[in-house]
Amino acid sequence: MSLAKQTEQALPEDKKTLRLLSYNIQSGIATTRMHHYLTQGWKHVLPHAQSLGNLGKIGHLISEFDMVALQEVDAGSWRSRFINQAEYLANCGQFPYWYSQTNRNLGKIAQNSTALLSKYHPSEVAEHKLPGLPGRGAMVVRYGDKGSDLVLLLIHLALGQRARLRQLGYISELVNEHEHVVLMGDLNCRPESPEMDILFKNTRLREPAHALNTFPSWRPQRNIDHILVTPSLEINNVRVLSHPFSDHLPIAVELTVPDSIQLSTA
User: Fold this and answer.
1) Taking the model in full, what pTM does it have?
2) Do residues 88 and 57 make contact, with C-beta atoms less than 8 angstroms apart?
3) What whole-number distance in Å separates Cα of residue 57 and Cα of residue 74?
4) In angstroms, what CA-CA distances link 257 with 37, 60, 155?
């Protein structure tokens, strides 16, 4: 585990409105048609000329946000030219703090990771392995002092429903340890699915808006990328951004946190 600080940056200490974004970036691969999964599948194991340009566009997009959750990030392998994509995007978007959790280490072939990019300094970052086959994890990111803290849970769930049921059961316990919680990520299921129904019944998490389709990016028909919040967080705006730099579209939310939560930039 390593929390890396890239640059010194002063942000308003009294700022209580936060802009959050969750994005499955597919390792910088801009899939724009269904048949690209077959014809461009080689890009998942080999470097390609468009990857850095695509990452640069993503970096520009996310720069306006305060905290960003990324899925399908490569932490440095052959396909990414051994560039840690979380660090690269942190530099592009001018995020002072970044953290990368590698969940599936395939050596030089791929380093499948989730990542946090943040303009505020987390007071704690912890990683968890999720139930099921190896390769799925969760990050618990805390801002502020215990008892009056904001907690982000960054996740990327399994493709199979049975595994997701177990994973969301585990995540429910993490959520219930805190009052002010945001769950962000690619959950690979819709809000009306049985596993999401269990999550909503077992926690106070709710989805700020419905029918925000994010997948596939070229013709969004499924809402499988989510930002869920507990009732103590006031939602001002939630939207899907029409920026097809991946096979998913990013989802963004603007929220107001209670005055008791102290956000720090150092």
Assistant:
1) 0.89
2) no
3) 16
4) 40, 26, 21
